[in-house]
Amino acid sequence: MAVQQQTVLRDAMRRLNMTRDVFASRIGVTRRALDTWLLPDGSPESRAMPEIAGRYVAEILERAPDGGEYTQRVQPAIAFEGRSQLLSVDQFSRDSAEALFRVADVMQPIARRQKITRVLEGAVLANLFFEASTRTRVSFGAAFCRLGGSVCDTTGFTFSSMAKGESIYDTSRVISGYADALVVRHPEQGSVAEFARATNIPVINAGDGPGEHPSQALLDLYTIQREFSRIGKIVDGSHIAMVGDLKYGRTVHSLAKLLSLYRGLKFTLVSPRSLEMPDYIVEKLARGDHVIEQTTDLRAGLTGADVVYATRIQKERFANESIEGYTPDFQINQALVNAVCGPDTLIMHPLPRDGRPGANDLATDLNHDSRLAIFRQTDNGIPVRMAIFAILLGVEHQVQHSMRDAAWRSPAYVGPDDAVFHGID
Ligand code: ASP
Hints:
Layout: H1 5-16, H2 20-26, H3 31-38, H4 51-63, H5 94-111, E1 115-116, E2 124-129, H6 135-146, E3 150-155, H7 168-176, E4 181-186, H8 191-197, E5 203-208, H9 214-231, E6 239-243, H10 250-259, E7 266-270, H11 279-286, E8 291-295, H12 298-302, E9 307-310, H13 334-340, E10 346-348, H14 374-392, H15 399-402, E11 404-405
Parallel strand pairs: 2-3, 2-4, 4-5, 6-7, 6-9, 7-8, 9-10
Antiparallel strand pairs: 1-11
This protein binds aspartic acid.
């Protein structure tokens, strides 16, 4: 089966660093035509790209007439200390992150339940979660299953042998004899690296305390790129506002570092004083050609942002911190977004949103606003995590040829509000 036209086109836009509008005019077609070629196969408005257009795109990439430095195709690779493991976004260059996104694009028809594959048939994933999780655990499990593998889960310390005093080394070595890959979430920073050093099977960090959450950052960047391309923006030069608990929020630690691989960004870091972004991350951002502003003023911080990335206050990690300044004024809601954000500002959040009284997290009154990208973000978790597994287990080149039609029917929009955003993605 040939590579899908959507994958070819998205790969070309990424490598040429072009928005859809610019790319459409570069290849001499209307934006509307390009949009229809990018729609998933089977959707009523999708159209086949004429062969000649495909040949022209390939020629443009070969000749790289724009002098694009990203037009060289890089093979996807994920390695930590010489092993196939994913512990930190520090393992990525801009090119290798985008090579992973190309694999994620290949996975889209499977994630959308139009196709199936069995490339991981017989493989077993051990999902070891020693901290609360819904999304990450289920989406890693679902991603592995959609590649044809099977999943064994354990959740919580209480029901694990760690409660009996077992070491990380022993646990990791034991599970390595049972499973072909390990996804680990643990409350201590650096602990997942310990799991990784005790085994030769692929280990993925699904959150190590306040440290990192690399797969979340990859799916966030993938989401930002896809959304930006549609609305005429590129990551270089964009303005990202990160809001909330920047001290303990591991998702913003990983995302900030990943975004720093791009050029000329403006980071506005909005938090109560006691929950500011750790210095080591601010220093890393400052080493690039980025502008960094830190503020406690939510309204000023959001103004002019292309992306507002909200986070939950990580109360479970608090020692003695007070959260002075985290008042109801700190809530991102419809009134604030209407007052200070543009018509295509993206509102993102790694989830969960804390909906309890006094939590002041991202408000639910934004649920019908198409700028709210949180469920597009969670949906993107599947193809991105499938890509991570496929690369770590060395099957990424087999997926395309292995795809078959799914036998069951699933709805065009999986959520009741999804049609608010008409899916021209
Ligand atoms: N789900 C994310 C994490 O595990 C964000 C959060 O819990 O607030 O880090």
